[in-house]
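Journal club prep — side note

Before the paper discussion, L.F. wants everyone to see what a predicted structure for a comparable chain looks like in token form. Sequence:
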Amino acid sequence: MAAQRRSWFLFGLSAEEAAGDAGPGRHRVEPSGDGIRRVWPAWSYAVLETGSGLEVLSAGRRWRLPEDCEAALPSETHVVLLRGAAVEAWPRAAVLRGELRGEPAWSRALPPESRPALPLLPDGFVAPRPPFYTALPGALPLRALALGHEHVVGLGAAGEVYGWGGGRHGQLGHGSLESEQQPRLVEALGGLPVRAVAAGGWHSACISDGGDLYVWGWNESGQLGLPSRAVAEEQPEDEDVGAVLCAGPEEPPLPEEPPGPAFISIQAFPALLDLPLEPAVAAVSCGSRHTAAVTREYRGWGVLPPRLGADGTVLIAGGGELYTWGWGKYGQLGHGARASCDQPRRVEQLWAEGLRAQEVVCGPWSTYVCVLQQGGTRGSPLPCTAPALQAGTEPGRCQEELSPRP
């Protein structure tokens, strides 16, 4: 059996170039070390874990961080590093210059032999912007935690979900727009074992043990996969084929129904989101205003028949497919256009080449996906199809695009 190769691709704004609008195609992310294991993206750069350690990509440059750096949380102001027996926050400029000298902006010693999974720490959690450290109640054991722009979603040891922080866009899942200073159980998910949580700019998601996907929060750009007025208004003005394919044909209203869809701006309770063909979800990630999910492989009875490429090559039998939806201005959805989309849609470029998605990580305006390719297959190259980025992006646009609009 031919060996499988792991490769990482990027859709959307290229952190390696960090300049100009990215094309709707994909960039192949090449490490200078021995493969890529994890990706932590910010707006203008990214930190990679390779077989040789941590590596920074920004403005067409890449360099290694000190050997004792094990994990990172980047932002546009600071980078938090898990470094030896401590967690440290360094100014972004120092990291991008490769100058981790002197004293960090903040540090916290870790208990002996502690290896936390950032942003979780043994007694709290850390964020890549001040205030860096927040303590958690001792009676609240969490096994995972996701950070949004103003809120936090935690996964409890028994699979329960907690939401706290800013709640003005319904991103906490409590059914209101109120903020919460302390972790509060998302009661709407009570009794449902959850195995993964994600948080974006102002929206959240989780995956149940059975592979069901739940979403809640702000839906201004269709990032929840629910009908969005902004997306509906965008599509008639966009002549790109991708927008037409995203919208699909609209059925006429029934005789006694009011015309037009029921737009949803805020979904304050978790809502079950069905993907096309209803596959189980293996992974989910949230960007500033977009969402991406990877489907689970089919195993055992009921396995789908294999698909054939144009040249007769056997492709993926099922599962491992990437779906994206939400804001698409920078091509971060991977649909070959810059149109936004308010329903989950498979990334056909990967599917057509028989590339099986394994992991997905959303940056604010980008989507990083790890795929598997069967080695030695014919007709399944891994090209870089995105055009070169143009210089001249104004850094000031970052906060403007990230900030919620009224």
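L.F.'s comment for the group: The chain is about 5% helix and 35% strand. Keep this in mind when we get to the figures.
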